[in-house]
Amino acid sequence: MTEKSYGGAAPFRKQGKNLKNMEHKSLVNDKNLKTEREMAENDGELDKARVLRAGKIASQLREFVKQIVRPGVPLLEIAEKIESKTAELGGRPAFPVNLSINDVAAHYTPSHDDKTLAHGLLKVDFGVHVDGWIADTAMSFDLENSGENRKLIEAAEKALENAIKIVKSGARLRDIGREIQKTIEAHGAYPIINLSGHSVSHLDLHAGTTIPNYDNESSEIFDEGVYAIEPFATPGNGRVYDGKPSGIYELVSGRNVRSPIARRILDFITEEYYTLPFCSRWIVEKFGQSALFGLKQLEDNGNLHQFEQLIEVSHRNVAQAEHTIIIEKNKVEVTTR
Ligand SMILES: [Co+2]
């Protein structure tokens, strides 16, 4: 799942960090190793075994996705199959499956009553977590036999591959961005410059560092850690704007809310998803359709941030590729391949 750059830090992160003291019992399966509280506070120390396990599940899911994505299949069916396969393989969704079509670059997930059928240039962006340790990956499909779509997909995939070849501890972020831009432009397309990759940490999908998809002239370098690299290619303008609300939310504040249904939903979210993104479809599944009103109350009360769909400004098609990597001192591993 991508990060939109607003020209500054994303406005909701800081509040999210303060949620570290809230309870989130059921996110952590293995109680023997560490208590949940210890894990939540364990910002610095990487649990590499779990990061790799999440990546391995994501990699198996990539094969599964290739089998189930066909033109005309309902997006709702694709999302539900991926999410239940995630559980079957021993992981949990790190965020709702994003199934964005054509000029929708990112942040579309089917609603509980979605009727959209797979078509056009479809991006499948999904995440897995194992006890809060995250893998984030994406792939694109041409479902209309279009030479232009295939070219865009190749551009995004090749850009990702080239970025992975040169990324390492101490490398400058701008050099990775330049490599992505250069590769995509060599395919006759443009990178989307206000979407970026991101660092990933425990229970935190967007952990502070953004990886540009162009040379942003910053002097920032890669530290050791986990990162998702995600180039987007388009023949269009190369920027996105905020479209309609997506039905994808994240918890930003545990502040008190009066309505009993909203309170129940808030407790559920805190326990099940903590600060990881979730969607209205999951809440309706649990509480029924009346829960949509509760979600609205929580959003109005400042407990939830709802993501917008991200639309390419000139309404041209967008392709995406994404993998998660672990950077260590002298080593880089792709977890989701
Ligand atoms: Co991502």
Keywords:
337 residues, alpha+beta, Creatine Amidinohydrolase, Arc Repressor Mutant, subunit A, 6-stranded antiparallel sheet, 4-stranded antiparallel sheet, 9 helices, 17 strands, binds cobalt (II) ion
Description:
By secondary structure, the protein is an alpha+beta fold. The chain has two domains: 3-21 and 44-245 and 309-334, Creatine Amidinohydrolase, CATH 3.90.230; 247-306, Arc Repressor Mutant, subunit A (Orthogonal Bundle), CATH 1.10.10.10. It is built from nine helices and 17 strands. It has helices at residues 13-17, 36-41, 48-68, 75-88, 147-166, 173-186, 260-272, 280-287, 291-300; strands at residues 3-4, 92-93, 98-101, 104-106, 121-130, 133-142, 190-191, 195-200, 210-211, 225-229, 232-234, 240-251, 278-279, 304-312, 319-320, 323-328, 331-334. The strands form four sheets. Strands 1, 8, 9, 10, 16 and 17 form a six-stranded antiparallel beta sheet that branches. Strands 2, 3, 5 and 6 form a four-stranded antiparallel beta sheet that branches. Strands 4-14-12-13 form a four-stranded antiparallel beta sheet. Helix 3 (48-68) runs antiparallel to helix 4, helix 5 runs antiparallel to helix 6 (173-186) and helix 7 crosses helix 9 (291-300). The longest helix has 21 residues, at 48-68. It is globular. The model is unreliable at 7-17 and 30-37 (pLDDT under 50).
Please identify the top-level CATH class of the largest domain: Alpha Beta
Which regions contain 5 or more consecutive residues with pLDDT less than 50? 7-17, 30-37
CATH architecture of the largest domain: Alpha-Beta Complex
Strand fraction equals 15-25%
The counted number of beta strands is 17
Helix count, DSSP H or I runs of 4 or more residues: 9
Classification by helices and strands = alpha+beta
First-residue to last-residue Cα separation = 16 Å
